[in-house]
Write a structure and sequence with these properties.
There is one protein chain. By secondary structure, the chain is of the alpha+beta class. It is 23% helix and 27% strand. The chain has one domain.
Length: 180
């Protein structure tokens, strides 16, 4: 699935990075952490990881900004899927990860896109953000207090004009954010 089908958040040429997350949530993929499939087999998990890694290689080659992927994933995690528009890589991308239990869907999501100051759906505008310093730089974070995704941890930063957001369970989110 490409962003063009799932996103629809472009307005006057600006890209709201949170739109990727919102569109995915509306589709039921990012809100509950549960899979529309009851179990993901080890073979399918490996195939998803391989396909996502190929997509990420394409994104790195085509992107107009420096893509910041983690150097390693938390133990047991694999890539699940990538959403991006290959004709417009400058709009950014979203990556979902599978947790160690192959019966669960995504444990985390990483979003990268050009930063648009003052964007209405900018995660940096959310109330309740607190500062956290990681090896990768200074981040803002919060735990989502409402549905969908109640309890979800959100870490967000802007590095060299790129808006980076990592959503998911606390410890894996910190691990990923610390590396990008």
């Amino acid at each position: 699935m490409r962003i063009t089908k799932a996103l629809g958040i472009l307005a006057a040429g600006t890209f709201a990075v949170v739109g990727v997350y919102s569109a995915a949530s509306a589709g039921g993929f990012a809100s509950s952490g549960q899979s529309p499939l009851s179990v993901i087999s080890p073979d399918e998990r490996a195939a998803r990881d391989q396909m996502a890694r190929q997509e990420l290689s394409s994104i790195q080659a085509a992107s107009a900004f420096a893509v910041r992927l983690p150097s390693t994933l938390p133990v047991g995690d694999t890539y699940d899927r990538v959403m991006w528009e290959s004709a417009k890589p400058e709009f950014g991308f979203a990556v979902w990860f599978l947790g160690p239990d192959s019966g669960t869907f995504q444990q985390m999501q990483l979003i990268e896109a050009p930063f648009v100051a003052g964007a209405a759906k900018d995660t940096l505008n959310l109330p309740g953000l607190t500062s956290i310093s990681l090896r990768s730089g200074d981040w803002k974070m919060l735990q989502k207090p409402d549905e969908p995704g109640k309890g979800l941890w959100i870490l967000v930063t802007v590095q060299d004009g790129v808006h980076i957001e990592v959503d998911g369970q606390h410890d894996p989110v910190i691990t990923i954010a610390d590396q990008v």
